[in-house]
Design brief:
The protein has 2 domains: about 270 residues, Creatine Amidinohydrolase, CATH 3.90.230; about 130 residues, Creatinase/prolidase N-terminal domain (Creatine Amidinohydrolase, Chain A, domain 1). The protein has 13 helices and 18 strands. α9 packs across α10. About 35% of the residues lie in helices and about 20% in strands. The strands form 3 sheets. Strands 7, 8, 9, 10, 12, 13, 14, 16, 17 and 18 form a 10-stranded mixed beta sheet that branches. By secondary structure, it is an alpha+beta fold. A hairpin with a 3-residue loop joins β12 and β13.
Amino acid sequence: MNADKRRLHRAKRKPVAGNRSPVAPLRLAPRLKAIMAKEYPRFSDAEYARRHKALAAAMQEAGADTLLVVTENRSGNAPQWVTGWPGTVEAYVVFRPGEKMWMTVEWVNHYPLAKKMCADMDVVWGGHCGPEKLLAELKRRGARRVAVIGPLRAARYRALEQHFQMVSLDAQYIRMRMVKSEEELDWIRIGAAMSDAGLAALLAGAKPGLTERELGAIVESAYIKHGGTTMIHYIGVTSMKKPHIYVPPQHHSPRKVKKGDMAFCELSAYWWDYAGQVLRTFTVGADATPLYRDLYETAEAAFDAVTKVARHGTTMQEIVDATGVIEKSGFTICDDLMHGFGGGYFQPIIGSMSRPAGPKLPDMTLEENMTVVVQPNVITRDHSAGVQVGELIRVTKTGFERLHRAKRGLFRVG
């Protein structure tokens, strides 16, 4: 980006001064408020039927007569997608088309809530022998070829192989999660609102003297009271004159915010299994230095260029070509510039011309109702400084929909 274009872009995106929140927290449509008002919200029967139909089709293609869906130690979200239960310590779900689902859960104090949230299923307490109960249930149902979704540990997989033919449906499940239904999009909109509330609280509360850890606490305070939970809040703070980081770190340090610092963040708050993701950069008690101004303007230009080409049918090469503004400005990136999101970290995972995300581009195009994060983490080529901007969007037939309401801009706080 040459000097004239930079000046023009700066005129369009003036810094937002002061500590005022850039968005009113949780401004939600009535239908979204109604979802949040439920004791334990569930999707409609029609939505679960849609999912179960897709699972049945994948099973048939794999020649499986039974499906096992797994959560282990809070890893694996398929049981929640299939049943509505956000598996905690351990959950084994047995699914067969046209039959009542069965699930064993640990621990005993988790069992009452699982039974309440999945009242249309047979839910049993594992009694610290869940795998044995699972084996007995599979035999009772006459299973022969069992498909698996989720993190079933190797020893248990091998134990089941002694009795059944086993096949993985993880890839098929990921494909099911990549394109969202209208109901899922509404839950994502709630997650986006939670994430925006966290950002608003951060911008309103950040000031010299607070540690990165205290900034994280401020973020969480904005959505916990509304039923949200934390997926991530990566927050980095550094001197603009002597920067020591170029991408928001995954763990907070005790470093204190100082006047003249730059901070950047990547925030995702969950509404159950559905999170938003918003990324912003702001300065503390000072205007951005020329370097940080250039980094920021390049990042915003890259976001605009990528979202300009985003639509149903966009090729991966079109996306990479749109990132060329980064290299033309003399910069590169660290973090992935685009990735699928909402139920997992999905393809398309895209880098830039100077920092590809892999040896080759994904063999796919964007599809309507995919949700993807566009997040230019523009950095200097020597990895000494960087900024990050962006957010989660929905791909439409002709373009994209913003799922976040947080304002864009190079904010100034403190």
